[in-house]
# Entry
Amino acid sequence: MALPRKVTVIGAGDIGCGWAALCVAAGWPVTLFDASAQGLERGAADVPQRARALVEQQRASQGIVERGLLEFEQARSLLQGVKDADWVIEAISEDLMAKQRLFESIEQVAGHDALLTSSSSGLPPGDIFARCRRQDRCLVAHPLNPPELIPLVELVPGPRTTQSTVARAQDYLRSLGRMPILLKKAVPGYVVGRIAAAVWRQCIDLVLDGVIDVDELDRAVSLGPALGWAAAGPHLTYHLAAGDGGVTLFLQQLLGSFESWWAELATWKRLEPEQQRALIHSVERAYKHKLELLREARDRRLGAILRALEQARTT
Ligand SMILES: NC(=O)c1ccc[n+]([C@@H]2O[C@H](COP(=O)([O-])OP(=O)(O)OC[C@H]3O[C@@H](n4cnc5c(N)ncnc54)[C@H](O)[C@@H]3O)[C@@H](O)[C@H]2O)c1
# Structure
């Protein structure tokens, strides 16, 4: 498989900079473009910092990162950024109309063979690429935050995406050490967003209902289901939870309990302004350190978890 000779990332926010740092850390030539000069300036500083942090995390080698950084550029226009890119990664705000307009413009300047991916968190790919004539080479590649650390990427093809486009996206992502999963059909929020939204609603509900404080709730998830799920997803966890009887026995023993809880779980669809204020107050009271420090600590823990998982896979 040929690696991309140039990757262009459009949108220098958290996600765009993460994608750029990941590709730079693989030694790939990367160009970053943002509609805002301020955004681009921030990205010019953020990407090298995040790529070098991968060296400290033992997730990239210094020589390759520094080589990638020599070929890291900022484009002054969409045309300059996109015209000779083999892979264009869109990472602008989650705004359907803006994404549609952007892909229409990208199509006019991108090379005939360029792969076009969107980082959308949940918009239908058929809508995102609606204004493109060549939808065969377009698909959603949804990363998790931060993209340079979390290996999972959801691939969501649109109705006209070809198999070879999917295979090419998988190849590029695997070359970057990512673990792509492929959705068989597009649903709003895709898979990861839907799981996160369902769990988060219950978490918010428990906090607002006064059952538990934010920090203890977060610990309950991180050291409870999330720790188990990091080693084995929910189905394998339950398949292993009832001795030799597997999931059949698990259902016999515990389905009744689950059904009684399902009947009780929160089902609200809106978080009213007053509830938002209460949630913000609870979160800010729980986490008083600067966001930068909290993010660094989170990334250190993520790096440690990934190293442990990789080690466990090879032993
Ligand atoms: N933040 C997350 O946790 C997360 C996780 C996975 C995916 N995503 C998705 O990734 C995308 C980017 O998210 P983010 O959090 O980095 O957003 P962000 O708002 O932090 O950054 C978006 C950047 O895009 C720029 N931009 C907006 N319109 C543009 C245009 N037309 N052309 C060029 N630049 C433009 C903005 O100036 C800004 O710098 C969204 O679709 C989001 O849903 C976000």
Observations:
- The pocket of nicotinamide-adenine-dinucleotide is lined by residues 10-16, 34-36, 39, 91-94, 98, 102, 119-121, 142-143, 145 (CB under 6 Å).
